[in-house]
Amino acid sequence: FELVCGQSWFQPILISIYFTGKMAGALVGGFLSDRFGRKPIFLIFTALQFIASIAMSFVNDVITYAVVLFISGGGSLVNFMAANLLGVEIVSPKYRSMVYFLMDVGYSCGYMILPLFAYCLRDWRWFLRVTGIVGILYIPYYWLIDESPYWLTSVGNEKKAREIRQKIAKLNGDQNQLNDETYDKTPDHVQGCFKSMSTVLSEPILIGRFLILSLAWIMVSMSYYAIALNTNRLSGNRFLNMFYGGLRELAGMIIFFIAVDVLGRRNTYSGVMSITAVSIALFVGHTFSGSQAAVTITTMLSKLALSVAYGVVYTYSGELFPTTTRHTIMATLSSIGRAGSMVSPFVIHRASGDTITPSCITAALIALSSATVMLLPETRNKILPQTAQQAV
């Protein structure tokens, strides 16, 4: 669309529109997931994302492109969060971190494959078409995956939940799983989504958790995407830089998987965000020294730490709130985090200006977030709460 020279100001706006779509989609999808179930929302928003990708390849004006980009952003986050909840609400507590680890391994592999597609398909329209057609691979998921037994129990459909538990026990060859305490936390009475949310908001402890996690999501999202969007500004081949970014993402998930089970959620988050704050300080110093190699190294170190932090906030946020509002709360937190994401392209776009002030402010807020998260309870190997009372 020739968004160069005098039109270059529109580039960060397009990126922010995409993040706005993520924010709006997360809010709508989170409520729908808690109301109608994880499986249908995962399937619908996955289809929406791939259809939007193909549709974008045929538009001829920037306004239509921005509208479809907004829709694409709306689908991309909801399906990821719904899939994450489907996983963590099916497995026992000791395997919850593995669910996110395996999901992000897939994300990392896709991250590394994308630059290969981009290198071979230099035309952006064909790039969008090919990546959109990949969505066909998800059609069998309609028959392959089941609804979350946790969600079914929370809305009073114990019969269907029991059937799925029996199926899981049969596949695992362990009938004792039917009596696993993981599934025995049936609520005393079933509440609707709105009623459950009002109950959560009436608990000061849960409100405090929400505020602490809001700051965590903002800082992780803003820092993560600011660094991700800065990848093209690094020295070297941009295709290889993106591939290395995928490798770093994979390394971050390996660290996440080990750390959250050894150190717990709180300590892991606090540790990696402290590393991020130090890396940002080093980044500023190396920028002024003119060392491009050092800038690249500190950038990748920050991204590695933030990859771990992202895994923690995704896992931790869902474990601190009840089933009937879990996706709504996570979606709301994620949407708050998108406010940070929406700022990141403008931070990069204005990178030629003053870098010391925003970097120092960011580092200070990261340090504050690192400290406040230590006030939250540890959830490692704990059973997921079904009600607000159990969450407290």
Could you explain the architecture of this structure?
- This protein has a single domain, classed as Up-down Bundle (Growth Hormone, Chain: A), CATH 1.20.1250.
- The chain starts with 9 loop residues before the first helix and ends with a helix.
- The protein has helices spanning 10-36, 38-56, 62-88, 96-120, 124-133, 141-144, 149-154, 158-172, 193-201, 204-229, 238-262, 265-289, 292-319, 326-349, 356-372, 388-391.
- It contains 16 helices and no strands.
- The chain is globular.
- Helix content is 74%, strand content 0%.
What is CATH's topology name?
Growth Hormone, Chain: A
Indicate the CATH architecture.
Up-down Bundle
Content-based structural category: mainly alpha
Largest sheet: none
* General form: globular
Distance, first to last CA: 52 Å
CATH superfamily: MFS general substrate transporter like domains
The averaged pLDDT comes out at: 80
Total separate domains: 1
What is the class in the CATH system? Mainly Alpha
Question: Which consecutive residue ranges, at least 5 long each, have pLDDT under 50?
Answer: none
Q: Radius of gyration, rounded?
A: 21 Å
Protein name: Major facilitator superfamily (MFS) profile domain-containing protein
Subcellular location: Membrane
GO molecular function: transmembrane transporter activity
Keywords: Membrane, Transmembrane, Transmembrane helix
What structural keywords apply?
16 helices; Growth Hormone, Chain: A; 392 residues; mainly alpha; transmembrane helix; MFS_dom; single chain
Short overview:
The protein has 392 residues and is an all-alpha fold. Helix content is 74%, strand content 0%.
